[in-house]
Amino acid sequence: MSRVLVTGSAGRLGRSVVSTLAAAGHEVIGVDRAPGTPAEAAVTLPADLTDTGETFEVIARFRPESVIHLAAIATPFSYPESVIFKVNTRLAFNVCEASVALGVPGVVVASSPTVMGYGAPGGWAPQYLPIDEEHPVLPWNAYNLSKVTAEQTMRAFARAGKTKLAAVRPCFVIPPEEWAGAPTQAGHTVRERLDRPELGGVSLFNYIDSRDAAEMIGVLSEALPELPNGEIFFAGAADALARKPLADLLPQVVPGTEPFAAGLTGTAPAFSTAKAERLLGWQPKRSWRTELKDDSPLLGAADPHTHP
Fold first, then answer.
1. What's residue 246's pLDDT?
2. CA 22 to CA 20: how far, in whole Å?
3. How confident is the model at residue 248 (pLDDT cuts 50, 70, 90)?
């Protein structure tokens, strides 16, 4: 159907994006210095996109109809703060600059819900729940500051040229192997995240299946011509990664959420995807209740509010 270039194609989200786009009939060009890009990619290239010349060379060589920019240092504090900020912001700038300069019609840039600022050492509480795209951002470390910068970089280039750009904030991404027990990005398993609310509570129990996120990104990429330039979207599951309602759990793990959490009854998540549903017609399909392997079918049965 079209040629799509995916940066970070070997990552936990990138693999699903490559497979999903290829299954939809697109010619996918994967760009990642790490191994692991799915075989469905027509071409895989180990380019260094922090290098401006290499970035221009890759995009000029393949002339994609769209670019999905996922490449980044994806884990906060996994490198020195200055390295995380430098790498992530340079990647976003180079990809946007080259795409606009070379006339790529559409670009989707990956951001993160961490831009909200949860987990800040000095304390943090939302201004309202559920959180949507209008909620103020309050970055406090190099990773979430780099993602705010990537969003602003995207919007600057959206104002500067004919290329249509957007950003997506995927919640805590869980690929298929992690439902089967492989460690998550945070080092623990999904089941441990459910069993120990303090693990997922800091990030307000947000998550999304990588295939749902990939499908949303594909829909967003195709919808870019009809959207206002520079839009930002959350991508999250339709429920929280928790066995109890967030109305009960959030005040226990995130002080200051008491006034707002009361409305998050049943399985309601803390992040809203209403904008994606309204503008893109996208809804997530997968839940931890259907995807988690080798777990009791009676999970959450003690509390009727936890059923989908």
1. 98
2. 5
3. very high
Q: 1: buried, middle or exposed (CB in 10 Å: 19+, 13-18, 0-12)?
A: exposed
d(CA 153, CA 3): 24
Distance CA 111, CA 92 (A): 10
What is the rounded CA–CA span in Å between residue 4 and residue 6? 6
Burial 195-210 (b: 16+ CB within 10 A, else e): eebebbbebbbbbbbb
Average pLDDT estimate for 109-126: 97
* Residue 1 or 145, more confident: 145
Extended beta strands in 71-144, E state: 106-110
Q: Is 299 a residue whose pLDDT tops 70?
A: no
Structure tokens at 203: 């990030």
pTM: 0.94
Residue 126: which of 283, 305, 246, 279 has the closest Cα?
Answer: 246
Identify the band that residue 295 occupies on the pLDDT scale cut at 50, 70 and 90. low
pLDDT of residue 294: 67
Interior angle at CA 132, CA 128 and CA 136, nearest 5: 70
Show the tokens assigned to 166: 């957007």
Q: How far apart are CA 207 and CA 6, in angstroms?
A: 22
Rounded alpha-carbon distances, angstroms, from residue 287 to 211, 232, 233, 270: 11, 23, 20, 15
